Amino acid sequence: MLGNFNLLVSTSRRNEKKACNEFWYLLREAGDVSAEVEPSNISGLVVSRTNLDPVKAVERLRGILLQRPWEFRYVLKIRPIQVIVPTDLGEIGVNAAELASTHIGKGESFRITVDKRRSNLRSREIVEEVARRIDRKVNLEEPDKIILVEILGDITGISVIPPEAILSIERERRNL
What local confidence, expressed as pLDDT, does residue 66 receive? Predict the structure, then answer.
């Protein structure tokens, strides 16, 4: 599995290889001819390393989806990842706070979203560790930014992104 991924892709179980091929093609369409895409060691997840900014890559992929929705057959959701750290409570807290300091403005609110796979850490512990380090307003319903913590066993991806930076294919299709 790519250890330095910056896009996390969900697919249905047992369709990881098909999702890899599809996502590789879609990233080429989005302008990255040297992207790497691999199945993760977790069923239903694919990791990718793009040379594009991961948030901008999601924007470009959304544009492709709006123009040619039939090209998304196996990819279900795409999440940008800005930093990869070891799965350690302190590391997650420090790195999330560093990202938040540069990505969450003074008047902006945030929410923390944790997706854990193959980890004994508790979501509540992670949320408390991250939240105590950030001096901004919390808004669980309509935050300006989401602090995304994606745990994949011994590595964790972290992002501080606007909610629209997560591309859910089904949600977008409902809005077409």
Answer: 95
Instruction: Name the token pair of 88.
Output: 């350690």
Are β-strands 137-138 and 109-117 bridged in parallel, bridged antiparallel, or unpaired?
A: parallel
pLDDT of residue 3: 83
Dist. CA 146–CA 164, nearest whole Å: 10
Alpha-carbon gap, residue 52 to 50, rounded angstroms: 5
CA 29, CA 11: separation in Å to the nearest integer?
19
Q: What is the CATH number of the domain that holds 37?
A: 3.30.70
Residues 42 and 92 in one domain: no
Asked whether residue 128 is assigned to any structural domain, the reply reads: yes
Structure tokens that stand for 34 in this block: 């040297």
Q: Is residue 63 part of a domain?
A: yes
**What are the start-end ranges of the E strands in 3-123?**
7-10, 36-39, 45-49, 77-80, 83-86, 109-117
- The pLDDT tens digits of the residues spanning 45-54 come to 999 999 999 9
Residue-wise pLDDT tens digits, 55-110: 999 999 999 999 999 999 999 999 999 999 999 999 999 999 999 999 999 999 99
- 88 and 146 assigned to the same domain: yes
